[in-house]
Specification:
There is one protein chain. The longest helix has 15 residues. The chain has a five-stranded mixed β-sheet with strand order 1-2-3-4-5, sandwiched between helices. Strand 4, helix 3 and strand 5 form a beta-alpha-beta unit. The chain contains four helices and five strands, in the order βααβββαβα. Helix content is about 30%, strand content about 25%. It is of the alpha+beta class.
Length: about 150
Amino acid sequence: MEFQVLSEDNVRLYIEYLKAAMAKEPDMMIADRVDEEGILKRVGDPFYQGTVSLLAIENGNVVGRIEYHFYGCMQDGYRMAYVDWVYVLPEHRHRGIARGLFAEFEKDCRAHGTDQYYLIRATNPDADKFYHSFEGAELNEMPFLRKDIKRTI
């Protein structure tokens, strides 16, 4: 297993992974299609450089990813990370890939002096089993606010 940060060098592998994920579990995806052209533009767009997509690559193919970003609180200096997305292709699950992605992510957190990370987790049985296995983690049911800013025309 190899871990690589998404870049212009491996973006085509990432797109193929997204197509496979979309074909296998469309209901688990947040988009309704793979926007190849948009992804090719975003991978070099400075706005997205603060987001890390870490890819798990096996035999030349992306089989999973974790996407995250760092941020901090100006008032108290607390340094945090938010995990935007974790997904492993179904046929590669239960082999330690997600655990490996989290281990690499936590290394990056330590390198950035991160105090804490969080994510909004899935609650299906497999996800529950996975997240309950984390040592020193707290699982909550917390309400959150979500508001779309982008205008619909």
